[in-house]
Amino acid sequence: MTVPRIAGVQLAPGAPLTWCIVEIPTRAGELVAVETPMGTRVGTVLVAPDQWLDALPAEIATGRVIRPASEAERLAWEAGRCQPQAGRRLAEEIARGPAEL
């Protein structure tokens, strides 16, 4: 029985890690495509499988690294990192405009 290789992948800047089963060679810092319950997403490997001292149980995995990210996916990821993100509350406040004094 082979022990599953597990990697921690961040699917968005500041997002928590998604633990993924890895069946291809990957290393920390690599941009990869991940199959998740929400569909295929792109993220950065922050914890590579070879960084673990002990094997991790496959049950913690909620995704699967399926391949390295394509050039188009890489460009979209980089563009998304440069876009400021605002929460719904801030967006609503901006839409209301300045408060009356």
What is this structure, in a nutshell?
The protein is of the alpha+beta class. Helices cover 20% and strands 32% of the residues.
- Secondary structure tally, helices: 2
* Mean pLDDT over the full residue set: 85
Could you give a short account of the major beta sheet? 5 strands, mixed, barrel
How many β strands by DSSP?
5
Structural class estimated from helices and strands: alpha+beta
In whole angstroms, the N-to-C terminal distance is 70 Å
**How much helix, percentage-wise, in residues?**
10-25%
Give helix and strand order, one letter per element, not per position. EEEEEHH
Strand content: 25-35%
Question: Largest beta sheet: what is the strand line-up?
Answer: 1-2-5-3-4
Radius of gyration: 18 Å
Q: How many separate domains make up the residues? A: 1
Low-confidence runs of at least 5 consecutive residues: none
Shape: elongated
Oligomeric state of the chains present here? single chain
